[in-house]
Amino acid sequence: MSFDLNALLRDNIRNLVPYSSARDEFKGEASVFLDANENAFGSPLPHDYNRYPDPLQHQVKHKLSKIKGVPSENMFLGNGSDEAIDILYRAFCTPKLDNVIIVPPTYGMYEVSANINDVQVRKVNLTPDFQLDLDGIADALDMHTKIIFICSPNNPTGNSINPLDIETLLLNFKGIVVVDEAYINYSKQKSFTYSLPEFPNLVVLQTLSKAWGLAALRLGLAFASKEIIAVFNKIKPPYNINQATQDLVLEALDNYSIVNEWIKETIQEREALVTQLANLSQVEHITPSDANFVLVKLEDPRGLYDALVNQGIIVRDRSKVALCEGCLRITVGTKNENEKLLAEIQSFYKSK
Question: Where in the numbering of this chain does the Aminotransferase class I/classII large domain appear (predicted)?
Fold first, then answer.
């Protein structure tokens, strides 16, 4: 199947002349900057933030490229993955005309962003074992379907999606297939970033908010063909990643050995938490997880949720989400946090 990026783009985006910032126009070295109407005297902070940041974050991308094994030219950095999701809608989906497919239960921002952009959402629920319903997706497609969103490992279920099923979509769907890998660091499954050369319609999302522990900095990653990345850069605000975030991320990326240790410890704690939860008679099912959380089906989930809140322990009630009836989503914490959680769960059920 041939993939035609230009045919997918909205007309206004295809013809868009992007804003050209002062830093975009200037190439090379300089010592006097009188081009962007900045405050030449500095900023009232220990570090000077009076100059606009690199609009394309070259230093951060260069360092990320070595870690991720993806060329910088195939990389977009956004204000969280949510910015990349929003740009996908603005690039490819004409409001009130086009549609996208999501596969519940899944990450909620795909639908929220669709609603913000006035784009129809078609829902094809995952199968009972939380895998893609390929026949259902095929039935939902039409000539106005532009994007299919897949979260793997999936949120809120934690399991990885069968990669062969994702490849089937990539090979047979003429639109964009988005594989959201926010939790890939906790999974044994190979990242789809390695498949970018094979599939021109593939967009892979990742984040530094989870395993890297940088949620407060709001840095999301999108990997795709050079042509799709050029579309992202055409649409994004001129300086979408601030200098403070860029500086801190550059520092953090030097400490990947610490992150690797945290990943190992999280996986160990995840398995210990699952073992302890499975020993409770009130726990009906725990979905095998490749993420830093577990989806647990248990008795009286709302009552347990409220009891935990009263003890200052916050989990996520997913009991009203499709296919997650009776479930809480529990993030894997530190050993002490997990022990406190388990003690409160046991106390709740004993008191009933």
Answer: 47-345
